[in-house]
Amino acid sequence: MFFLFHLEKIFGWCKYIFLWTAYMTDISRFARRYKGHSYNDFLNFKRNYNKRYLLYTHLIDAFELKRKSVVYLEFGVSKGHSLRYWSSQLKHPGSCFYGFDTFQGLPEAWGMYKIGDMKAAEKELEIDDQRVMLVKGLFQKSLPNTILSIDFSGFEHKVIHLDADLYSSTLFTLATLFPILKPGDILIFDEFNVPLHEFKAFDDFCKAWYADFEFAGAVNNYFQAAFVYRGQKLPTL
Questions:
Q1: Neighbouring residues of 127: CB distance < 8 A, sequence distance ≥ 6
Q2: Please, which pLDDT band fits residue 108 given cuts at 50, 70 and 90?
Q3: Which domain of life is it from (predicted)?
Q4: Residue 234: strand, helix, or coil
Q5: pLDDT tens track for 149-187
Q6: Phi/psi at 192 (nearest 5 deg)?
Q7: Of 8, 81, 101, 129, whose CB is crowded by the most CB atoms within 10 A?
C-alpha cells in the first residue's frame, strides 16, 4: 500500500524527525538505566568538556593501566588533546598510541558542521613521544591495513577512543575492530549522546555483532561515556 500510493511523498519530510525521536527515546531509556552508576554525573545542567579528563583518570585508576602495556587507538584526533593526555599518563615503555584522522576536517556534514570543518594539521600536534603514531586518511582506507600491521598479542590492554562524530565513521571503526576485541577492552565515546551518530552506531553494532558491553562511567550527561567489552552474547538456537 505504501509503495502503491507513493506515501513517501507525504511522509518523507518527517523521516528524520521520527528516526531522531526513536533513538532519543532509546538514549533516555539508557540514561534512566545507568543514572545510579557510581561514576556518572547525570543529571548535570552545565557541560564542562574538561570533565572528560576525569573520566579518563577514573578508567586509568580502575583498570590499573599505568602499570600495564596498553595499545591506545584514537579515532578523531583533532588537535590531539586526548591523545596527548593518554600518552602522558601511561608511561609503560611497551605501550603504543595510534591517532587516526583525515587531518582535513569532517568528510561529511555533521549537524551544524560542514564538510572540512574541525580541520587540524598534523604539525599542530607536536607530541614528543616516539610511542605515538599518527595515521592519516579516511578510516575506511587507513584502518584495515594498519590493524593488520599491529601485533596486539604484545599488549595487556586495549583502549579505543571513538571521537569520530559521524555514524558512518563510528560504525565502520567498530565493525573493523571487532575481530581484535577481547573481554576487558575499553571503549570511550566522545559524543555518545548524539542520537543518530555515535549512539546509533554503537547500538547498531551491538545488535548486529551480538556484542556485550558493561557500562563503565560517563560525564556531561553521557556526552562522554565508557564501556568495557564482555564478549559476544549469542542467541540460543
A1: 80, 83, 84, 87
A2: low
A3: Bacteria
A4: coil
A5: 999 999 999 999 999 888 999 999 999 999 999 999 999
A6: -65, -35
A7: 101
Which three cell numbers mark 225? 561515556
CATH architecture of 51-109+117-231: 3-Layer(aba) Sandwich (3.40)
User: Of 183 and 107, which is predicted with more confidence?
Assistant: 183
CA distance 141 to 165: 18
Instruction: Encode pLDDT of 9-48 as tens digits.
Output: 777 778 788 888 999 999 999 998 998 888 998 888 888 8
Q: What is the DSSP string of 137-172?
A: S-HHHHHHHHHHH--GGG-SEEEEEE---SHHHHHH
The DSSP code for 191 is S
Q: Amino acid letter at 192?
A: F
Q: Where are the domains of the chain?
A: 51-109+117-231
